[in-house]
Amino acid sequence: MYKQNPHQDTSIISPASFEGETIEEKVRRIMNNKEPITDGAPLQYSQRKDGVNELCNIKSDRFDMALDMTDKITKSHRSKREERHKGEDKETKNQEPSPVPKQEQNQSGNPSLYVSK
Description:
Elements: H1 23-33, H2 62-94
């Protein structure tokens, strides 16, 4: 006999489902109420003088378009980062530098590693 997995209760709630109208009912409703047809996809036609839209052209190289978009995004990120650093630079210029303690020098004239107190 096969092992059956025990039923587990979860916190996932399914959305309320409903039955939509059929195509025949929709056509009947539109014809009876003389409603305009509002749903549908936009036309993808363009003027001949404008040429073929790259987004609709199956022969276009979408990798090049993706590279162009990523270049634009990286440029915007860089400009935002530079603006953020410019603001930080102005704040640090206004502050006085912290005093650096003097290091003792040993006999050879180099700074000593151990500071005697």
